[in-house]
Amino acid sequence: MIDYKGANFDIVLKRYDVAAQNQETPESVAKKMLPADPIFKKVAEEVLYMRFKTVGPVVAEALKERKPLDVINNGLVSGMEVVAKLYADHIYYLPEIMMAAKTMEIGIALAEKQIPGGRETKGLVVMHAAEGDPHDIGKNIAAVMLRSSGYTVTDMGKDVAVDDVVDEVVKSKPFLVTGTALMTTTMTAFPRVAKKLVEKGINVPLMAAGGAVNRDFAESFDLGIYSEKAPQTPPIADRIVKGADWKQVREDWDDIVGGI
Ligand code: B12
Questions:
Q1: Gap between the Cα atoms of 181 and 101, Å rounded
Q2: HSE of 219 in the Cβ direction (CA atoms, 13 Å)?
Q3: What domains can be seen in the chain, in order of their start residue?
Q4: Which residues contact 75 (CB under 8 A, 6 or more apart)?
Q5: Looking at ligand 1, which atom is closest to the CA of residue 231?
Q6: Alpha helices in the chain (DSSP H)
Q7: What is the whole-number distance in angstroms between the Cα of residue 182 and the centre of ligand 1?
Q8: Cβ of 136 below 6 Å from ligand 1
Q9: Is there an atom of ligand 1 within 6 Å of 78 CB?
Q10: Looking at the predicted structure, is the pLDDT value of residue 142 above 90?
Q11: Is residue 20 over pLDDT 60?
Q12: Is the predicted pLDDT of residue 147 greater than 60, yes or no?
């Protein structure tokens, strides 16, 4: 029989992959990033600590003292910015980012109701996961980031047929279309979408993203632009809204996403 006496389980069970990351904690990052205003800070903490059961009452309380748009941008979105930093630094992982996003969305829905005429949008983005592809977690994260940056998103979901994407673009005229593919067998849907759009004379940038896709592939067909990570999407969208077309985005890509 094995004798475990004297074994130091602190060493045996140490997760070196985790231990090697960094010494920061959600609290220490929050201290540096959360807003100073106590009302916005309280709202941001609801998102940061994924308190989806209490975010409603906390936002309702904040709305008595602050404007709804400020509660969204300085409270809820500020909290999500901390979450995005924690995710990028491998302190938070996928479950946390999804729960925080849900918490933020509950708060945004509540605050938006109090904005006369609704929240002003920077523009419409149509998002989808490629035909045959069931992987939509990365797309959902990118959608949250676009929404929290002031864009309106039509999320067509996963496994969306090429023709359905084209029909939606014709109907709703977005300034940007995004597609996600995590499988090498599904990424070929993007050039097919692009070809059909070009045939109809539609010049909208088509962002190809997801693990199966790289920059070379995304830029191998007309309209195609690349985004490697969800947080790169809002700055790319901002550049298109300012007037850049898909060729210009390709040229400026390193500059736009630099450091993200
Ligand atoms: C979760 C998962 C699933 C889930 C998907 C659930 C869901 N709702 O998404 C389920 C169980 C359904 C699934 C099924 C299958 N899967 Co799967 N799956 C995965 C897994 C483990 C994780 C993917 C994930 O969500 N990662 C987390 C997210 C956050 O990462 P991400 O999507 O890469 O997103 C990041 C970037 O890519 C980017 N991004 C992604 N989307 C977008 C969109 C925009 C607009 C932007 C800007 C950025 C962006 O930003 C994110 C980071 O910031 C991967 C393995 C892996 N390591 O990737 C396999 C993987 C993708 N699956 C794979 C396969 C093969 C399958 C199946 C075919 C398995 C089978 N034999 O049945 C089936 C699909 C069957 C079908 N056709 O319906 C393969 C694909 C291989 C390939 N290259 O073709 C992988 C790589 C596993 C492997 N190593 O073999 N899968």
A1: 22
A2: 14
A3: 20-112 (1.10.1240.10), 124-257 (3.40.50.280)
A4: 35, 39, 40, 41, 42, 43, 44, 47, 59, 62, 66, 107
A5: 53
A6: 9-12, 16-19, 26-33, 38-48, 55-63, 68-70, 77-88, 94-112, 137-148, 162-172, 189-199, 215-218, 233-241, 246-257
A7: 5
A8: yes
A9: no
A10: no
A11: no
A12: yes
pLDDT (tens digit per residue) in 207-257: 999 999 999 999 999 999 999 988 889 999 999 999 999 999 999 999 999
Stated pTM of the model: 0.76
Q: Is 249 exposed, middle or buried (0-12, 13-18, 19+ CB in 10 A)?
A: buried
Taking alpha carbons only, the member of 198, 204, 188 closest to residue 244 is: 204
- With tokens 């500059």, the residue in question is 255
Ligand 1 close to Cβ of residue 140 (< 6 A): no
Output phi, psi for 68, to 5 deg.
-55, -40
Sign of CA dihedral 153, 45, 259, 180: negative
What's the whole-number mean pLDDT along residues 17-30? 76
Confirm or reject: Cβ of 207 under 6 Å from ligand 1: yes
Each residue of 54-103: pLDDT tens digit?
Answer: 999 999 999 999 998 789 888 998 898 898 888 878 889 889 988 998 89
Opening angle at CA 247, ends 254 and 230, nearest 5: 50
Nearest-10 Cα torsion for 66, 72, 73, 77? 140
Quick check: CB of 211 below 6 Å from ligand 1?
Answer: yes
Residue 157 Cβ inside 6 Å of ligand 1? The answer reads: no
| Atom in ligand 1 nearest the alpha carbon of residue 212 | 83
